[in-house]
Amino acid sequence: MELQDVARRFPGRTVGAPPFTAVRNLSFDVRRSEFVSIVGPSGCGKSTLLNLVAGLDRPSEGRVALNGVEVSGPNSSVGFMLQKDLLLPWRTVLHNVEFGLEARKMSGSERRQRAMRELERCRLTEFADRYPYQISGGQRQRAALARTLAIDPDVVLLDEPFSALDAQTKLVLQKSFAGTIASSGLTTLLITHDLSEAVAMSDRILVMSDRPGRIVEEIEVGLPDRDNPIARVATPRAGEIVKHLFHSLHIDTREDA
Ligand code: ADP
Ligand code: MG
Fold this sequence. Notes:
Helix content is about 35%, strand content about 25%. By secondary structure, it is an alpha/beta fold.
């Protein structure tokens, strides 16, 4: 994944207002199978950036490319997952996972097989026939991941997928996602507000500036065992990086602050 000098401007909000620049001079790349997190102040253009990579939006300037090919629209090699699970309430978990495959030329039994394989990978086999309201928030996010992975993407884009969950469910899910993603060799871009999560999950962290967003810092996490975020976050190295990120994002850590 490669972004070169990307800018995205939106029309001004009122007639005659100047255009509004969400991101500018945005450049970075992500290697194959690498897990990169992006942190940055709210409103700095993180979701805008993911939409550009997903091909749901086009840059005003610059270039976005995947596997050396410029992104010009939605692409089946990209899986996209948001904070809201967007599961269809009238479909079972299995039928939700099958949903993304319905546009493909694929027999019903092949579709079913593929969906069941993803449910197994996301440890949801026993919930296949339940409806979204019958499972927990964490299970719903796992179902959303299964649906994302069912299309067999090379790249997954995760926009704050854990931020609506309670602290304990979040830890369990981080571990579950990390294991699934590491074992499938996916190239991953995670947007998160949670600095510990960024350290726990990724190979590299990119820090974005205030709007218009661009990358102002890059940190190599340098911790082993990406499939075990809980063990990673307990290391002194993780603590140092989180402290450093607080500083980079101008979050005051003094006791009297
Ligand atoms: P983040 O995800 O970092 O919180 P966003 O990428 O959602 O930020 O938004 C960045 C800025 O761009 C915000 O000020 C937002 O209001 C604005 N923005 C996002 N999408 C649009 C759009 N389609 N039209 C106009 N403004 C937008
Ligand atoms: Mg956002």
